[in-house]
Amino acid sequence: MKQKIRIAAGQGFWGDLPEAPVRQVEGGPIDYLMLDYLAEVTMSIMQKQRSRDPAAGYAKDFVPLMKRILPTCVERNIRVTANAGGVNVEGCAAAVREVALELGLAGNLRLGLVTGDDIMPQLDEFLSRGIELRNMDTGAPLSSVRDRIQSANIYLGAAPMLEALNRGAQVVITGRATDTGLTLAPLMHEFGWAPDDWNRIAAGTIAGHIIECGCQYEWRSIPNLADVGFPIVEANPDGTFVITKHERTGGWVTIPSVKEQLVYEMGDPHEYITPDCIADFASVRLEYEGRDRVRVFGIEGRPATDTFKVSISYSAGYKAVGTLVYSWPDAYDKAQAADKILRTRLDRLGLKFDHMLTEFVGANATHGPLAGKPSADLPEVQLRVGVRGEDRTAIERFTKEIAPLVLTGPPGVTGFAGGRPKVEEIVAYWPALIPKREIVPIVSVIEV
After folding, report:
1. Where in 261-335 does DSSP place strands (E)?
2. Which of 65, 114, 362, 429 has the least C-beta neighbours within 10 A?
3. Which residues contact 44 (CB under 8 A, 6 or more apart)?
4. Is 346 helix (H, G, I), strand (E, B) or coil?
5. CB 314 within 8 A of CB 153
6. C-beta pairs of 393-399 under 8 Å, 24+ apart in sequence
7. In 3D, which of 354, 350, 372, 358 has the Cα closest to residue 324?
8. Distance of CA 37 to the CA centre of its chain
9. How many C-beta atoms lie closer than 10 Å to residue 158's C-beta?
10. Mean pLDDT by 10 residues, the chain (448 residues)
11. Helices (H), 349-440
C-alpha cells in the first residue's frame, strides 16, 4: 500500500480550461488525473446529440485531450478517472481506443467502462411496478411528465469505478457518476479502504468535493490567474489529506479558498448525501501546512442510504430572449419606455406567456431592488426581455416584436445584440430517488 497519493483535478465542467489537464500531467508528480465533465443539463444536451447521431453523446473534448496526454500517462503510470462518457460510454471508449492505437500504445493500456446509469429504457417498467420516481422538490409522480422525458440517469458512486481500477484499468470512463466518486475510487483502490469505513469514505468524498470544480478563486488579489494552478489532493491512508497545487503556477491555496469550495452546492452541512456515504461537513478541520498547502482532517461520516439519486430531464416548453442596448442620455428611461411599448404591443396581439421577465442590464439586472435607484447618468443600459411558455407560436411572434423597437421606440439604440431572438426548447430538471436494489452497474475492462 502506498503511503501517499496525489490526485489532480483537470476539468470542472465540460468546457473548462483545455490546457489544465495537460499542465496537471506535465507540471509535477501526480498519480491520478480526475476529469469532471458532467452537469445536470449536460446529460440532456448529450442525449439530444446522440438522438441526431448515434456515435455522439459524450464529451468530444476528452478524445483529443487523451491524444495529447496518454503517452505521458502511460510512461509515468498516471491513471485517469473521467465521467466523459455521458450517455455514450461505449462510443467514448471506442474513440479513445482508436487514439491509443494511433499512438502505438497497443498492449500497454487498459480501458475501464462503467455503464448502467442510463435507465431511460427501464422507465416504463419501473413505473408499472409502482416505483413512482417522485420529484424530490414537488412530490409529483414522474408519470405526469413521462411523455416529455429526454434523459434519466443514476448518480453512480465510487464502487463501479473501484472495480474497474481493481481490474487494472488505467483509464476509467463513466457516464453519470458522482463528481466525488471520481476521487474517492482511487483512494479506496490505493489504500484498501472498506466501503463501510465511514470516516475514511467521508474523507475521500470531501476531498473529491473540494477539487471537483477545478479553480474558483477570489479574483482581485490572486497572482497570475492567466496561468492558474488547478487543485491537487495529496492523500494519506488514514483519511487526512492536503489540498495543494503544482509549484510555479498561478493562484494560491488558502484556508478561505478551501472553505469557499466546501460550501459550494451544499445543503445541510451535517448530511452531505452521496451513494457512498453521508459526510458531515461540520466535522472538517483545516490548518496550514506551508505555502499553498491546506491540511484537511477530523472528518466524520455515516452509513450510506439505500437509494440512488436520479437525474431526469424533460421538455418544459419554449423560451426566447431579446436584447437592445440604449445609450446616454437617459439610457435607463429609454429602456423602461421600450419595455412598456413592447408589452403593450404583445397584449394587443393577444399573446399569452407562462412568464415574462424584463431586466435592465447595467441598472439592476444583477441585484434587482437591492441596486437602489439607477443613476440618470448611466452611459448605457441593455434591455433584456425573456418569455417562456408552452405555445411555440406565441414565442415565435414575440421574437418578431423586438427589432421594430429600433425605429418605433426610443432613440439611441446602439446595438441589436445577436439579431432576432431564437426560440429555444426549455429543458427542466427532475430529481428523484430509486432503491439501490433496482440498479446494476456494469463494469468492463478492455485491452487496447
Report:
1. 272-273, 278-280, 285-288, 294-297, 300-302, 307-327
2. 429
3. 150, 151, 313, 427
4. helix
5. no
6. 394/351, 394/352, 394/353, 395/318, 395/319, 395/320, 395/353, 395/423, 396/320, 396/423, 397/349, 397/351, 398/320, 398/322, 398/346, 398/351, 398/353, 399/320, 399/322, 399/423
7. 358
8. 6
9. 31
10. 93 88 96 92 81 90 96 97 95 97 95 96 96 97 95 96 98 96 98 98 97 76 79 98 94 90 88 97 97 97 98 94 94 96 97 96 85 84 96 97 93 78 92 97 96
11. 392-399, 405-408
- Which residues in 251-306 belong to E strands, given as ranges? 272-273, 278-280, 285-288, 294-297, 300-302
Q: How would you label 314-331 residue by residue, b for 16+ Cβ within 10 Å and e otherwise?
A: bbbbbbbbbbbbbbeebb
8 Å CB contact between 37 and 57 = no
Contact between 299 and 199 (Cβ < 8 Å): yes
- For cell 439610457, name the residue: 331
Pairing, β 79-82 against β 32-35: parallel
- Measured CA to CA, the distance from residue 443 to residue 159 in angstroms comes to 10
Can you tell me whether residue 339 is helix, strand or coil? helix
Q: How many CB atoms are closer than 10 A to CB 385?
A: 24
In angstroms, the CA 174 to CA 35 distance is 11
In the chain, the amino acid numbered 346 is: L
pTM of the predicted model, to two decimals? 0.90
Task: Give CA–CA dist 336/442, Å, rounded.
Answer: 57
Three-state DSSP state, 257? helix
- Determine contact, residues 155/312, Cβ cutoff 8 Å: no
Crossing angle for the helix pair 255-262 and 198-211, to the nearest 10 degrees: 100
77's grid cell: 503510470
Cα(381)–Cα(430) distance, integer angstroms: 36
**Residue 32 corresponds to which cell in the numbers above?**
491520478
What cell does 286 get? 483545516
